[in-house]
Amino acid sequence: MTQHVTAAPATADSAPVREWWRDAVIYQVYPRSFADGNGDGMGDLPGITARLPHLRDLGVDAVWLSPFYASPQADAGYDVADYRAVDPMFGTLTDADDLVREAHSLGLRVIVDVVPNHCSDQHEWFKQALREGPGSPLRDRFHFRAGKGQDGELPPNDWESIFGGPAWTRVEDGQWYLHLFAPEQPDFNWEHPAVHDEFRSVLRFWLDLGIDGFRIDVAHGLVKAAGLPDIGHDEQVRLLGNQAVPYFDQDGVHEIYRDWRGILAEYGPERIAVAEAWTPTVERSALYLRPDELHQAFNFEYLTTDWDAAALRAVIDRSLVAMNAVDAPATWVLSNHDVVRHSTRFAAGDEARGLRRARAATLLMLALPGSAYLYQGEELGLPEVTELPDEVRQDPAFFRSAGQDGTRDGCRVPLPWSGERAPFGFGPADGGPSWLPQPANWKDLSVAAQTGDPASTLEFYRGALAVRREHPALGGGRDIEWLAAPEGVLAFRRATAAGAFVCTVNLTGSEVTLPTPGTLLLASADLAPGAAETVLPADSTVWWAA
């Protein structure tokens, strides 16, 4: 028996205008670690621009850039001092303009981060608020409060920083300010109209430069519950967590995004915004994507699901139903700059098994209806770097023992492009070492080493993206048809009038024999399909034209 995930009915008889983000494959570039144009060991905008042909050849539709704004770099650029300037370590505003123009010439769209929940303690507003002291109108643009205790020596409430420790820091005049992340990242007060006006201006600044959209950092965090109430428990809120707390996912954020949607519409129907929203449920995430709000939201529930058939099927079903209810595309993602690379997460101590599962997981993700996100280096099969010396680490969470594990540096190690020795073509030949050291065995994982090798992960990604782009039943869509399959195996069908497609995923540790459903398109492992039956290797995914 088959089972369908039902789509909502169409709202109009006429054919819809194609909206590119509904089936886009979007590639995240972490600027520090993608490519170094000037040889100082740090990735930059000219380096990215020079390497854009790699992304065109890979077959993605858009590039998402993590922050490159002027910043003291207390949290790798997520502490913004000037939202309209490029940090000199990454280049100039002209370099940003060149990057956008070159991307567009190659058929790539560009999405940039915007960081509206907090800024840097070096932002001019915050510096002036400190100079002017209590009662300054600038302090109302942040969350300054008197402390508790006899002399105000205790924080105003019991909120904790995501990076560990109190979410409050006391300044010399005795007041405290709120920072849900590092102390160098004071939270804006979105009850203040000047904050709204500033970000309207920032959005227009970058839209005028020609960018195609925004990824909204901590999109769920802008509005805090009235009165900033205590949480009343000891649980540490973590990155990508889904706890219900009074400083995340408050209903007031939605009015902000309705306003932003209007600004995007001024620049035409193809400019988009993507929410990084950690919410308790995928249904709560869907609220950010109602027709008058944002276009996409990251599917963190899918990212954090284990390599387990029943769990994956459940989250796929919930995601499709929730997104269909608001006529938004589902999104699928396996890795990003904040989590351990999925080739290592799925390894369970066995690196070969991790890569095998990572390739299988990629084909599953790319077979699902909607939009997919790739994180730089996953197309090379890069593992997490787990043995970085303490002295080179830069993740602020690493230095706060009460907080996170501080392991985000391991997924941010610069990419290997070519050569036999580090930094493997990351920068020019006469450049210095990369800002985080690369493992010596990455010489075998470089772009140059893998190009042209049909067994390589890079060529596997190129092939998968080409098939996804060409097959009429792949890409955007609203539903899948689950097919009968043994325990530990997922099988589903997608079809249009122009063709049908079947995906089978063996998540078990053993071979599984299944009826051959059609013509082999692509497999994540070596496969010899039979006329009537096919043996699927352990931890493998197969695409079929049905």
How would you describe this structure to a colleague?
The protein is of the alpha/beta class and about 550 residues long. It is built from 13 helices and 21 strands. Strands 12-11-10-6-3-2-14-13 form an eight-stranded parallel β-sheet. Strand 8 and strand 9 (about 175-180) form a beta hairpin. The chain is globular.
Mean pLDDT score, rounded?
93
Count of DSSP strands: 21
Radius of gyration, in Å, reads 24 Å
Beta-strand residue fraction: 15-25%
Principal-axes shape call:
globular
Strand order of the largest sheet: 12-11-10-6-3-2-14-13
Which regions are unreliable across 5 or more consecutive residues at pLDDT < 50? 1-14
Helix percent reads 10-25%
The biggest sheet, with number of strands, parallel, antiparallel or mixed sense and barrel status, is: 8 strands, parallel
Q: Helical stretch count?
A: 13
What is this structure's SSE topology?
Layout: E1 3-4, E2 25-29, H1 31-34, H2 45-58, E3 62-65, E4 69-70, E5 82-86, H3 93-105, E6 109-114, H4 124-132, E7 144-145, E8 168-170, E9 176-178, H5 193-209, E10 213-216, H6 253-266, E11 272-275, H7 282-286, E12 296-297, H8 300-303, H9 309-325, E13 331-333, H10 342-345, H11 351-367, E14 371-375, H12 447-450, H13 457-470, E15 481-482, E16 489-496, E17 499-506, E18 512-515, E19 519-523, E20 533-536, E21 540-545
Parallel strand pairs: 2-3, 2-14, 3-6, 6-10, 10-11, 11-12, 13-14
Antiparallel strand pairs: 1-15, 4-5, 7-9, 8-9, 15-16, 16-17, 17-21, 18-20, 19-21
